[in-house]
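Batch 3, record 17
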Amino acid sequence: MNILTDLPISLIVLCSGFCLILLGLWGMLTQRNMIRIIIGFSLMDTGIHMVMVSIGYVTGGTAPIINDAVPMSEAVNLVVDPVPSALVLTAIVIGLGVTAVMLSFAVRIYKTNKTLMIDKLTESKW
Amino acid sequence: MIKRMFIFIMLALMATIFFNLAWNYTESSSLSKLGHYYVEKGPQEIGAPNLVTAVVVTYRGLDTLGEVTVLFISAAGVGLLLRRSRRKQGNEALKNANETKSDPAEADLAEKSAVTHRAASEIVETAIELLLPMIILFGIYVFMNGHLSPGGGFQGGAIIASGTMFLLLALPESHISRLMIAVTESLSGFSYVVVGVLGVTMAGGFLDNRFIGLGTYGDLFSAGAIPLIYTFVGLKVGFELSAVLDRFRSEDDSADFSEDNSEDTGPA
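Prediction for the assembled complex:
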């Protein structure tokens, strides 16, 4: 218990993010069903977001929003880095767009080939 | 077998990289120089209490414009990939060929009526009447207050799109006007760029929010052009995601996608 509470919180988020990246990569490489591959991509995407957010963390910091609890004069010592948060905001939206395009490709492939297994799509095999 | 081994080796190497990164990781105890500048100068320069918004909309505004563009292109790509072939509608559709050209959604409805859907229960149908306006209002609230509280254009747009998702789940036959979506989306995208250019001519640079005047710090209409930009972004994202969801709506399963002889109905 002590080991867990002594770990910095951002390290836990970082390690979970790395695990999700590996899990997603494993899923993308080993699974043969297209929907599962897309799920693997989403997992990897989420893992990357977690890693980025954890890098922006400052010990004891809070959300970078100025209010009564975070006065403007002391904000520098109280908040986490806003730049990684902003980048993750961008990355989430881009990830959503990419996932939507991949899913529509899967729908299209299913319509034409009646299968979602990439092993059956022999014309794209080299 | 050899493929599995390569996958395993690659994952093991990746895991080694990640392990080393995590092992040598030390939590930072102060902001990076860039973050320090944004936190110190942001509230005075931009007038927005939410510093993430200040970074997203102003300091890195060009990134956000690119992000909106990527989302637009992906929505257009989904529209292109999932457009419906109109060949299978048979003779009836041929009679109304002119009408279907002008309004493809009507043709979709006609084609859908052949497929019987199980109607949503009364509870869901009543709930949608009650909740949909509130969901949309909440989405508008979130993107209007993006500079004051957690939230912003993308989050608000996602909430509006979740309302659309709810509508499509509860009333699968409901008709969403493609024209309205296209017009709103294009207008808000265009206005976003116009606001950016106004920043060049009247203030310090592209997407500079200070050409309106910062107003009282902490008010709803403060922080210059940020509420304006986030409103356009929110509308654009909300309608774009709604269009994507509408495209993914289940079609006739017997649809033959073998040929695309249909005119492009235009995703946006």
